[in-house]
Please model this.
Amino acid sequence: MLLLGTAISLLFIVIAARWLLQKHNPQAVLLLTGLIMLSLSLILGMNSDLARVSTGSVVFDLFRAVAETFTGVLSRFGFMIMAIGGYVAYMKHIKASDALVYVSMKPLSLFKKYPYLAAIAVIPIGKILFVTIPSAAGLGLLLVASIFPVLVSLGVSRLTAVSVIAACTAFDMGPGSGNVARASELAEITAINYFIGHQLPLVIPMTIFLVVIYYFTSRYFDKRDVEQGKSTFGGVDASQGTLKVDVPLIYAVLPMLPLVLLIVFSDLFNTGITLDTTTAMLFSLMVALLFELVRNKSMAAFFAGVKKFWEGLGKIFTDVVTLIVCAEVFASGLIGLGFIEALVTGSMHMNLSGGVVGIFIAIVVFLAAVLMGSGNAAFFSFGPLVPDIAQKFGLSTTEMLTPIQLSASMGRTVSPIAGVIVAISEIAGVSPFELAKRNAIPFASVLAFMLIYNYFVL
Model:
């Protein structure tokens, strides 16, 4: 029976991937396939515990389980993710994100005579920005508007310039990320502790390795494209790279404020105060609203800002929270059909270690993100399976979970259908498929580096 359940699980993973490739709504795909798998697990007698509180009918229990998943997600961390989305939307509304990018990119003027050094210098700066502007498409578009024309005018190709911008969005990290919120919830630790204690020890060496890889691959591919007559040099006016910032530059501190608060008032410092992410976001929102009130001297602007926060919050519910819920139903279907049990049992029979299983899942999630064009969909689908697998192999949840979570965001960078890749390639005037191909070698290399470093060095 376990073998049959595993075969069905693999079949529905393939079906879900196919539908997602056809650009059907990911929430609908994951919910439908998850419900079908749960139904089949009941029919096969492999799953008798659907809803925590039974309705008295197996049919209604299926939908009761979905309702309980919704309420569970919202009560555990759903509102935190929505508050983050609202704050990010408000930062964009008052152009504080623009101010932060403008200030952060000023050091690049030091590399005017060294175009490829200027290009790779964007990556670590972009990584820091991504912690405080946790929207891949949002940050990507800001960087295309500001730094892309400057890099091209310095002497790198348009494809190289937009490639390093894509690389800035490759590691979902920091307490503002939806994937980080979900990962920290699965690991049962705070988002800031997950970020500092588990992500940074991996991300820092990964970023150094990525910068080195990008330096050599960018020079190689630009030279090769020239030889093959496919050069993407030029075609951009450097004057276009002047980001219009019509707010005081002090606004650059506002996107960073929640992160600073979470670090200062965490276990790292003995202040006697401990902040959670939602509280930090709401406090920072009030500070930002007061900034705007002082600048505009208008209560109308204050109230309009609050409305933007709620609109951003609602958009995150639509795009992210619903995706988490549907992905959890999908994961429940895999669990109900014995997918985890079969994976663990099969690995033990083959004498595979937990590290090998973790590497396998990370590669699967990376490829899933490439196929889906979404790091969230890939991680939310497989992330809930990790704690049980890690426990059965005697590993800590974070040891297996962190590289899997980072694999999802790296896979998005290599997907030609990912929103951020499509958006920035269109503005840069390059093919999203060429951009994805340009990113493939660096991120396949970084994926291998990360897995070796995580399981055999740390």
Q: What stands out?
A: The radius of gyration is 23 Å.
